[in-house]
Design brief:
The structure is a single chain. Helix 4 (145-154) crosses helix 5 and helix 4 crosses helix 9 (281-294). This protein starts with a strand and ends with a helix. The protein contains 11 helices and 18 strands. Strands 3, 5, 6, 9, 10, 17 and 18 form a 7-stranded mixed beta sheet that branches. Strands 13-12-11-14-15-16 form a 6-stranded parallel beta sheet. The longest helix is centred in the C-terminal third of the chain and has 33 residues, at 332-364. The chain folds into 2 domains: 3-143 and 299-337, Quinone Oxidoreductase, Chain A, domain 1 (Alpha-Beta Complex); 147-273, 3-Layer(aba) Sandwich (Rossmann fold), CATH 3.40.50. The chain is an alpha/beta fold and 365 residues long. Bound molecules: NADP nicotinamide-adenine-dinucleotide phosphate (NAP) and zinc ion (2 copies). One zinc ion is lined by residues 85-86, 89, 91-92, 97, 100, 102. InterPro entries: ADH-like_C (IPR013149), ADH-like_N (IPR013154), ADH_Zn_CS (IPR002328), CAD-like (IPR047109), ER (IPR020843), GroES-like_sf (IPR011032), NAD(P)-bd_dom_sf (IPR036291).
């Protein structure tokens, strides 16, 4: 029976390290060894949720169930927010399995495991092969953050001729700037302050606007599309005047309460508000290929996959100091040590070979 360490967010005792035991693998399930996990803003909402945290996982397949067909032991794969769906409803048949009424998603299903862990058991059907040349730590934040922003752009037909606004330069936002810029769009970044201006411009932004204390926003061209990736809902009164007629707003933030938007500007300018959650598997796979081809990568800060490492990373994210995605690495020292040991063994073997050849040479003479 597979058993592995997981990190759970609890109501009264903070992060707890516990063991999860799973039944023998069945159907297309695989057992994975986790090698990296991103920390998403949504994890903060669940930190007291009595559930195992993390949904930006990357790992290596260690065992395969009886019906696994396409993946094998040793494959490097990622997974994200959705773990299962019914496979036969209208949404599933359309490739919109993220809206399947029987979807199994982070926060609602499989609460005994997540990517803040050393292992996990998931269905092969919900795993994504990691493109060659993309490291585990780069791939991890793409499994939710990358998928979510790419989905908003790609699934809703963003054109290279568009001016796209990205509001909030965090885990999602800093990836969204890169995706939109590589899609050929003009990218306008809206951020609380000027602090992130230089990095946003380096990531591909064409224009940067600090929103704090602004009574009115000025853009050189109205926005055809806006991805809102702030951790709370923005002031819509400030935003609507910079939207082009017929523009689309993608509110991606997870927030409590109501969505309240000035009513007449929405009607009179034919604006569209388009909600969405993460990405279907079809789009997720396309996102990974696009990121690999265009060398889109998160700027990341690494933390050890321990109780202390998770607490540190969460505190930094909550304070707004993360640049720009935390990635938790299980056993960072072991893999580094293994590498050092391998190198030392190789050097030792070469020295022995060298000595042997010299000795053989003297004998021949
Ligand atoms: N819809 C989906 O499928 C989906 C998927 C993943 C995440 N999410 C949600 O998307 C949001 C962003 O996630 P993330 O991982 O990118 O979080 P993050 O790294 O914390 O980034 C959020 C950004 O929002 C801005 N911000 C911080 N505090 C704020 C506040 N009080 N009010 C307004 N803005 C604030 C900051 O950007 P600036 O400094 O530039 O202002 C910050 O970098 C979260 O609400 C998360 O739950 C949704
Ligand atoms: Zn997420
Ligand atoms: Zn379904």
């Amino acid at each position: 029976m597979p058993s592995f360490t997981v990190f759970k967010g609890t109501k009264n005792d903070g992060i707890q390290e516990i063991k999860t035991e799973k039944p023998e693998l069945k159907g297309d399930q695989v057992l994975l060894k986790v090698t990296a996990s991103g920390l998403c803003g949504t994890d903060l909402h669940y930190k007291a949720g009595d559930m195992v945290l993390g949904h930006e996982g990357v790992g290596i397949i260690e065992e395969t169930g009886p019906d696994v067909k396409f993946m094998k032991k040793g494959d490097r794969v990622g997974w994200g927010y959705e773990h299962d769906c019914c496979g036969h409803c209208q949404q599933c048949l359309k490739g919109n399995e993220t809206y399947c009424p029987e979807r199994a998603m982070y926060g609602f299903a499989d609460l005994d495991q997540g990517s803040f862990a050393h292992g996990a058991v998931w269905r092969e059907a919900f795993l994504f092969p990691i493109p060659e040349g993309m490291s585990d730590e780069v791939a991890a934040p793409l499994q939710c953050g990358g998928a979510t922003v790419f989905n908003a752009l790609h699934n809703f037909d963003t054109q290279p001729t568009e001016t796209v606004g990205i509001m909030g330069v965090g885990g999602l936002g800093h990836l969204a700037i890169q995706f939109a810029a590589k899609m050929g769009c003009r990218v306008v970044v809206l951020s609380g302050s000027d602090r992130k201006k230089d990095e946003a411009m380096k990531l591909g932004a064409h224009e940067f606007i600090a929103t704090k204390d602004a009574k009115e926003l000025k853009v050189s061209k109205p926005l055809d599309r806006l991805l809102v990736t702030t951790s709370a809902q923005p002031n819509w009164d400030l935003i609507l005047p910079i939207m082009a007629p017929g523009a689309t707003i993608h509110p991606l933030s997870v927030d409590e309460g109501k969505f309240e938007i000035p009513y007449m500007p929405l009607i009179l300018n034919g604006l569209r508000v388009q909600g969405s959650v993460v990405a279907s598997r079809y789009i997720h796979n396309r996102m990974l290929s696009f990121a690999a081809q265009h060398k889109i990568a998160p700027i990341l800060e690494k933390f050890p996959m321990t109780k202390e490492g998770i607490n540190q990373a969460m505190e930094k994210l909550e304070k707004g100091d993360m640049r720009y995605r935390a990635v938790l690495i299980p056993h960072p020292d072991t893999s580094k040590n293994k590498h050092i040991l391998k190198k030392a063994l190789l050097r030792f073997a070469l020295r022995i070979l060298d000595k042997f050849l010299r000795y053989a040479n003297t004998k021949v003479r």
